[in-house]
Design brief:
Distance between the termini: 34 Å
Structural class: alpha+beta
Helix content: 25-40%
Bound molecules: flavin-adenine dinucleotide
Number of domains: 1
Oligomer: single chain
């Protein structure tokens, strides 16, 4: 069976935590994180 792809809109803290939660629950499929930043990603905050 083909693994589903999760698309997360918003590449901020909430989006990063959503991706982390997916991995934390054992999801090993494709995760697409979409943001509207005009610069490369970096860590602004940690939680
Ligand atoms: C200058 C600054 C410094 C900060 N410093 C700290 C700190 O040191 N510690 C701390 O705990 N908090 C800090 N914060 C607050 C912290 O950044 C926010 O609480 C946190 O980023 C909120 O996360 P979020 O994912 O909800 O929203 P955001 O981080 O705002 O993320 C929203 C995401 O949605 C995306 N998006 C928006 N519109 C669209 C669209 N139309 N299509 C696709 N994507 C879209 C944006 O590109 C972004 O990736 C700071 C905030 C600012 C502005």
């Amino acid at each position: 069976m083909v693994s589903p792809t999760f698309v997360i809109i918003g590449a901020g803290l909430a989006g990063a935590k959503a991706a982390e939660a997916l991995r934390g629950t054992g999801f090993d499929g494709r995760i697409v994180l979409l943001g509207d930043e005009h610069h490369p990603s970096g860590s602004r905050s940690r939680a």
